[in-house]
Amino acid sequence: MRIDEIIKSKRTLSFEVFPPKKDGEDKEKLLATIDALTSFSPDFISVTYGAGGSNSKNTVEIADYIQNHARVTALAHITGGPSSPETVSSLARSLRERNIENVLCLRGDKPVGYEAEYCKYFAHATDLAAFLATYGFTLGAACYPEGHAECASLYDDLVNMKKKEESGASFFITQIFYDNSYYYRLVNEARRIGITSPIIPGIMPLVNPKNIRRIKEMCGSTIPLNFRNMIEIYASHPAVMEEIGFNYAVYQIIDLIAMGAPGVHLYVMNNARTARAVCSRLETVFHELFRTV
Ligand code: FAD
Questions:
Q1: pLDDT tens digits, one per residue of 50-62
Q2: Which bin fits 35, alpha (ψ -120 to 50), beta or left (φ > 0)?
């Protein structure tokens, strides 16, 4: 089903997985995780695409499994940056042959030292979206509550977000964030400059203190002081840390839904236990508040 159509009728619950680096056991594990994720009745499951383009085959295979075996709407990510038009065409055809209707258009992170070569054909997600327009996909794109690292200001980034919509993106999924005010600011400012597409908040439970720095470096996401304190004070108690991380994610989601978010996209890092920990705490919320908008 087309994700833009699903979002019109209800709040969405979705998950993100990434393809295994190796075939074999890792892949079997991921397929079992996808099967487990279906028990939470997600509206769609997205599957990432390697920034180097190396695991494009795996992205198609996993998206195929989600769509045609697990029978959940699949959202295949494509990063244009490393790819040639021929690669993207062939990927687009493979996805269409498998009845996959939804693509998240991305540029991908530029590898240091290869910037110019990396984005030779698709300098931005907008170029990829324009290229994919003829394949009949429903297109989504990424957005950044705290602004993208390469942009001088949030407002420059918002102007580019608008270009993504003009190039065909009909929904957005955000980068992870731990302070909901950044999401509310993004939505307000986006609406102010005329972006009308739904903006789905992306939430990743933070359950490992070692990830604090990684998240800041990779995603630029601010960790609010009160949350950071709890993480650091209980860093040597992993079980307590998990409780804090899962409950914080649940708090974020309830607040987001109360403020009118169109759904929630959970970065579960291929871990069905993470999905279970969050979804079981939100069973009533999903049951009562996700059936209709
Ligand atoms: P762009 O939209 O090209 O934006 C990059 C920068 O260029 C921004 O500063 C933006 O403001 C600016 N810009 C955008 N359009 C234009 C334009 N037309 N003209 C001038 N400037 C412009 N990475 C992966 O490798 N694989 C994945 O599967 C993946 N999935 C992701 C899913 C989500 C929900 C998110 C939020 C990110 C994901 N990423 C993934 C990371 C993403 O590739 C990086 O954040 C990357 O640095 C930017 O990708 P983008 O699509 O936002 O790029």
A1: 855 456 789 999 9
A2: alpha
Lowest mean pLDDT among 127-131, 212-216, 225-229: 212-216
In b/e form, how buried is each residue of 13-43, taking b as 16+ CB within 10 angstroms? bbbbbbbbeeeeeebeebbebbebbbebebb
What CATH number has the domain spanning 3-289? 3.20.20.220
Taking the domains of the chain in order of start, what are their residue ranges?
3-289
| Residues with a CB atom less than 6 Å from ligand 1 | 48-49, 51, 77, 79, 106-109, 124-126, 142, 148, 150-151, 157, 160, 163, 173, 175, 202
State the pLDDT at residue 292: 66
